[in-house]
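Dissemination and training. As part of the outreach component of the grant, students in the summer workshop were shown how a complex can be specified as a set of sequence lines and then modelled as a single object. The example used during the hands-on session is reproduced here so that future cohorts can follow it. Participants entered these lines:
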Amino acid sequence: MSAFITRLRQNLGTETFGLLILLAVMVTVFSLASPRFLTAANFGSMGYQAPLLGLLTLAMLGPMISGGINLAIIFLANISGLTFAWVMLQFGGAEAGLPAIFMGAVAAMAVGAAAGALEGAVIAFVGAHPILVSLAMMIFLRGLGEFLTKGGDISGFPDVVGALGHGAIFGFPLPLLLFLIVALVWHVLFSRSRHGFATYMVGSNIRAAEYSGLPTKRTLITIYALSGLVCAIAGILMLARFNSVRVGHGEAMLLVTVLAIFLGGIDPFGGKGRVAPVILAILILQILSSGLNLIGANQHLATAVWGLFLIAVMILRSGRLAALIPFRKD
Amino acid sequence: MTSGSDSDALRLKGITKIFGGVKALDAVDFDVRAGEVHCLAGENGCGKSTLIKVVTGVYRPESAEEISLFGQTLSAITPVQARAKGVSVIWQDLALFPNMSVAENIAFDTLVGARPRGVPFAKMHAAAAEALARLGVTLDLHAPLETLPIAQRQVVAIARALMNDARLIFMDEPTASLTQSETDRLLDIVRKLSADGVAVVFVSHRLAEVLDISSRVTVLRDGKLVGVYPTEGMTQAKLGELMTGHLLESTVSARAATGPVVFEAKGLSVPGQFENIDLTIRAGEVVGLTGLIGAGRTELAHAMIGMTRAQGTMTLLGKPYRPASLRDAIARGLAYVSEDRLSLGLLQKQSIADNAAISVLHKLLDRFGLIAPAKKDALIRDWVKRLGIKIGAPENPIATLSGGNQQKVVLAKWLATEPKLLILDSPTVGVDVGARAGIFRIVRELADQGLAILLISDEASEVLYNSDRILHMAGGQIRHSYDPRQTTIQALEAAIYA
Amino acid sequence: MRNLMKNRQIETRIFIALAAICIFLSLATDTFLTLGNLTSLLNNSSVNLIWAVGLLVVLIAGGIDISFAVATSVVQYVAAKFLIGIGGGNWLLGFIACGMVGISLGLINAALIHGFRIISIVVTIATFNAFFGLLMFFTRGRSIYNLPDWWIDRIALFEHQSADGAWSQLMMPVAVMVVCVIATWVLIQRTNLGRQIYAFGDNPEGARRAGVNLALMQALAYGWMGLMAGIAALMQVNIVQEVVPNALYGRELDVLAAVVLGGARLGGGKGTVLGAVLGVMFVAVTQNGLNLLGISPFAFKMIIGAAILVAISTSNMNLGGLVATRKEGAK
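and obtained this result:
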């Protein structure tokens, strides 16, 4: 039994249990505060809202475990969405058939992965800091997107695409299904695959990883390429949800993904952390946002509460609550 | 002057310090005379650092019969008192500021304080120049510290200690990363300090270089005082016995190697690093490669494992061998245990299991191409048993292990790749004297099983007792080959330090 | 001089790049090298430069700050409400109000970072969200236009009308910016506190052992950033003549990129005021040049992003940072 718990702890990460308790507390509080919280409608709407942030957070996860960061995720998603839209428009826009949609999706993912791989290559071969590289890529992609769209919206897509954003299978929201599939793949990737293993090693000490015979450069490129790939999936979903593409869509989510990752207990220096607690963190953020919405607050208050919530969790984790006078001398 | 003789810089009697019920220091006596060069020896965890921290006021001992500093009796030393009395510690990591200038590093204490004031650059430069002059050294005061080699940084650290009017300086493992000539220069400086009346305490578990300029050595073991001995007539072997508490076998284990040739290099050169190296290693043979730091030993190893490209020819098991990368070399059957275990050999943040599995992930896959936890567990269990590694759970961080056990994990990681040739680069750095024998026992067993081994070490005794053939490298060339059975430690050391 | 170039490689490199762009633009356009263009370049860059020198101090201390741009928005709003509330106020009161609110916000970051040993990027991303969310919640996104006259009056320090009748003016924010830049230079190069910040960023454990007061260093670095954010708030209002709560959102990353481009190291201990200024001006001049060359404004960001990517790819600046294991400083 204890062996089972050890295994579970290893697979899910030690943060999971604390976050589960938090989650339970919040669900209880909000269900008492609002009668509409524990309803199918509320959970349904959460099922459509959370996956976008969730996918973007998963895109941020690999770079962060490797000790880096990918600040370009939003615009990677936008550019991929733009690619998707462009391919569909080439085949008649709203009249585009399934093959065109499929081709567009493949092209979008290829663009996302390629742009991510370029970031990874610069980081791997130049040794420049990921913050700087991904920041430059972010500025570049934002500019490229604005240049291509002249700052406007692109819309007019087949109804099938909209269904991806709003549809359901047996009452189960399609976006949520998409997110859960990617999350499951990510969980396996980081807990069982050689690439995931290498990502942790690169994140804790890249030179030692190299001296141990790991292909560190290839690993870095793959990390950012996979990040770009998931951004593309998010970009497609974004297009489907909003029924349009606009460069800058979802910009506010950039730093929220980092927030979710820290909440999920990923080591800010890299090398440590699991997928499961990050999924829980996303769920917690979504519940905070929906719950506050139900009791009459707006998204801005939710944003503030997210920030305060992260601070509170980090303070609890720091184990320094005793230091209530922050500037005591050591 | 309340107690103690005038010539005593420090007198400690019956010092006890307890951490969580464990006596880190158990009624330890320690005294240093003014102007004396003293060695404080003991294995990791014997209480050396705890003792330094008591002297510098970081820790307050639970009980003490006597504490006196330069003739003044104290109930306990506070950091302020220690500083005021001129007690200074040069930690192994030097605690300097790489991006700041030499002058700022030396005179840093003039900057410390919460009260805002201008920086007296001229005064700081003058003071720094004076401190360096006392040491008989000239350095560019404006140069950022990071542009200096490690030996000169150490000089900067000593000069900084002098700025505080240090009269008692502790040096923590000062020679660990120095070449022989740099060590000699450091010893010159220490002699100068000693002549000035400054007492110097070397804290180390590797004392060969400093034994002859010290007058006494204090040995600690498990938090207890073993004794204080004059260094005259003290040998490294005797000191090892005192530190570990048991007799260390040091017999020549060389045998004639008869196995087939595994590795051969002819005319191997990397310009500026080494030239014209001929090297043959046979199956079941341990070839010792010794020489001073900077002789080109590690550089040669790097060329063998594909980290650098060398001119000349190499063959592995009779086939031409020209590694394009470290990964290529590993695939061909080479394994390299780096001299820098802390930052290159192991991933300190990760678990024991992951550190052991990192080199053989491809052998641990299930039918889906994923890492199979059961296979990983089996791998760890197997190697823990074979090498006698003492671990708690395989999931524990590698940093929880002692140096010796960490090094065994490194060995396990490479042996798991089933190498043909194992290169050990200074495998006992940071490993306690007692645990070293265990490492070499494994090395011998591996050779007996037919592995070809290149053992690189700058300690003459290590290669003498543990290899079948000794090569001496200097200035990028192999100077001479010795048969351990027909040479002595004195002859070998004479050749190395000539 | 050669010594200076050796020790300041990144600054030298970006200076050469900047000079090359300026020479090219002077030859390629007749508008770049005009008084009017150069003064407006400075006017438009002053807020970014004030932020940049504040951020520089935080980076030198081994930290990072994501929250300063929204902190500036908070300062603007709080100060505007306060000044309107007391019937208008004046420049002195404005400086005091903005400075104090800015410093307070900075000290919140410092307290969380030092008091609870939380790494700075986590803290400032959290405070970024908290500051911005609370600001938008309480203002409901509404702007303030009825600001005191003294605040929105444009003060020209220098005016010149050229032969063709075009006016060139240097506005007051430029002077304030110059004061901030010089003050920051004095702080980090010429005072013992500044040198301790360098030492702390360079080797936190070494600084601790040498007796540097780490809490004070964190307070000073983030407090200075806060003060700069406060001053930037005051100047931004003077330039745009309104308070829009979400106007500055997103500017933080552009400034961060420019400062790091100028040689400040993520991870601490390295960076100069000259480098930070050159980094900001490199981006500003590039943008200005693209504008003058008649390139579509939609392409600006793309080209600037590409320029930064090329700059970091061709220079082998090995910026150790978050990856490096730091024990005390960033935490």
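Chain B touches chain C at residues 91, 93-100, 104, 108-114, 116-119, 142, 144 (CB under 8 Å). Students were then asked to discuss how this feature might be tested experimentally.
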